[in-house]
Amino acid sequence: MIKKIDLEKEKKEILNKYKAILRACSDKTNKEDKKEIRKAFNLAVDAHKEMRRKSGEPFIYHPLAVAHITAKEIGLGATSVICALLHDVVEDTEYTLQDIEKIFGKKVAKIIDGLTKIQEVFDKNVSLQAENFRKMLLTLSDDVRVILIKLSDRLHNMRTLESLSKAKQLKIASETLYLYAP
Predict the structure, then answer these.
(1) Backbone phi and psi for residue 58, each to the nearest 5 degrees, phi listed first
(2) Best exposed site among 7, 38, 41, 83 by fewest CB in 10 Å?
């Protein structure tokens, strides 16, 4: 039997997750930062509105979780939270890097670009030795926030493996052990 999706409940949950992000970074943000975070939140919600995760939940839960990890668990500020909210927008939607730069500026666009490039490296070079891979990652990005947001992304993916097939779980877990853990 297919579960009927309660859209109102999902909307409330999305808003609660957003508010939790704001609370997590409240000591590092001012009024202007909060406006920018809200703008990123609105764009991410809109960009991912038709998308769902394998678990069936709205895709937006993922960028919200990554943003929460960057703010609460790592302690990063507004720019990182904005980039975490937007980290899959250029890769998975119609938005371009130029759109992001127009809306959020060069700094955010550069971090998003770094995240996209790291994703391309991950897809193509899984067989690299972990040490060489780490060195390449660090030279690829001139902003450490790219690495920290990518680690937050992977951490959330690891925390939500249960909805994937056993084979996919093992693939992601071994990739994480091989590439991220060192």
Answers:
(1) -60, 140
(2) 7
Number of Cβ within a 10 Å radius of residue 151: 15
Say how many C-beta atoms besides its own lie within 10 A of residue 120's C-beta.
11
Q: At what angle do helices 31-47 and 7-24 cross, to 10 degrees?
A: 150
The closest of 142, 146, 155 to 181, measured between CA atoms, is 155
d(CA 12, CA 23): 16
What is residue 5's DSSP assignment? P
Cα angle 109, 161, 12 (rounded to 5 degrees) comes to 65
In which residue are the tokens 């759109």 written?
99
The 3-state DSSP composition of the chain as helix, strand, coil percent (nearest 5) reads: 75, 0, 25
- Residues annotated as part of the active site: 91-92
Q: Are 145 and 79 in contact (CB under 8 A)?
A: yes
pLDDT tens figures, 98-136: 999 999 999 999 999 988 877 665 555 555 555 566 666
Model confidence, pTM:
0.84
3-state SS assignment for residue 58: strand
